[in-house]
Design a protein that fits this description.
The protein has 262 residues and is α/β, with parallel strands linked by helices. Helices cover 46% and strands 14% of the residues. It has 9 helices and 7 strands, in the order E-H-E-H-E-H-E-H-E-H-H-E-H-H-H-E. Strands 3-2-1-4-5-6-7 form a 7-stranded parallel β-sheet, with helices on both faces. Helix 4 links the parallel strand 4 and strand 5. Helix 1 runs parallel beside helix 2, helix 1 crosses helix 9 and helix 4 packs parallel to helix 5.
């Protein structure tokens, strides 16, 4: 399907690998020009080269740095002639016991997983409305719908972002001007983050990563982990011209793991 977003400009955060890269790759395949961001320059440049080779004619600009830093944020947004599409994304804070978390840990989690996406949305939403087109997609977590006790920092920060989006996305000044804001909620995907989590659990439990991965897959009705490519495809659709009537929604992509109706 042609999504009618060729020659648009997208800013995609945490795009050097994993789900962020999957989203950037899917948008590039639709002819979208990209500004991609991640903390580490070398992996980011490698990702930019892959994207350029995979979608000839698409311009890809890479800006390395912590997107939570206001200066980096300005540099990322200034790298695009205009931002038609924004994909916010950041790694989740570490697991742990809520009794051990001090204000410093909460401040970091909120900055990374709530306040930074809010600032990015604030920076681009009104100019999108003026042009009559805008697509904002926030990559959050399935834990927004089914909180995980050990991920309280993530539950709290991402839950706050979800509530913020629910109100802002429905403002007539945006929704009536073809600006949509939605959240993508990933379950277990075959990414470096999942591998790192399995390896950490293996060290703590003494069990093999293969056994742990097999058990994790068995808990998913689809019987497998998701792929960044299929996640990116969902993101690209939400950014399409055809998705203009979808806003303020939380799309859960977890292979059926969440057992609820709503």
């Amino acid at each position: 399907m042609e999504y009618n977003i060729t020659d648009r400009w997208a800013v995609v955060c945490a795009a050097s690998r994993g789900l962020g890269f999957g989203c950037a790759e899917a948008l590039a395949a639709q002819g979208v020009n990209l500004v991609i961001n991640a903390r580490s320059p070398e992996p980011l440049e490698e990702a930019a080269d892959l994207l350029r080779r995979g979608a000839l004619g698409v311009e890809v600009r890479a800006v390395a740095g912590d997107i939570g830093d206001p200066e980096v944020r300005r540099e990322v947004l200034d790298a695009a002639p205009q931002t038609d599409i924004l994909v916010t994304n950041a790694g989740g804070p570490p697991a742990g016991d809520f009794r051990d978390w001090e204000a410093e840990q909460w401040d970091s989690a909120l900055r990374q997983n709530m306040l930074t996406p809010v600032e990015l949305i604030k920076a681009v939403a009104d100019s999108m409305a003026e042009r009559g087109f805008g697509r904002i997609v926030n990559i959050t977590s399935s834990a927004v719908k089914a909180p995980i006790a050990a991920l309280g920092l993530s539950n709290g920060a991402r839950g706050g972002l979800t509530g913020f989006v629910a109100g802002v996305a429905r403002q007539p000044s945006l929704a009536s001007r073809n600006v949509t804001i939605n959240n993508l909620l990933p379950g277990s995907f075959a990414t470096r983050r999942l591998t790192d989590s399995l390896e950490a659990e293996s060290r703590d439990s003494g069990r093999s990563t293969e056994d742990l991965a097999r058990e994790a897959r068995q808990e998913i009705p689809a019987g497998r982990f998701g792929t960044p490519e299929e996640f990116g495809a969902a993101c690209a659709f939400l950014c399409s011209a055809q998705a203009g009537y979808i806003t303020g929604q939380n799309l859960l992509i977890d292979g059926g793991a969440y057992p609820g109706t709503f």
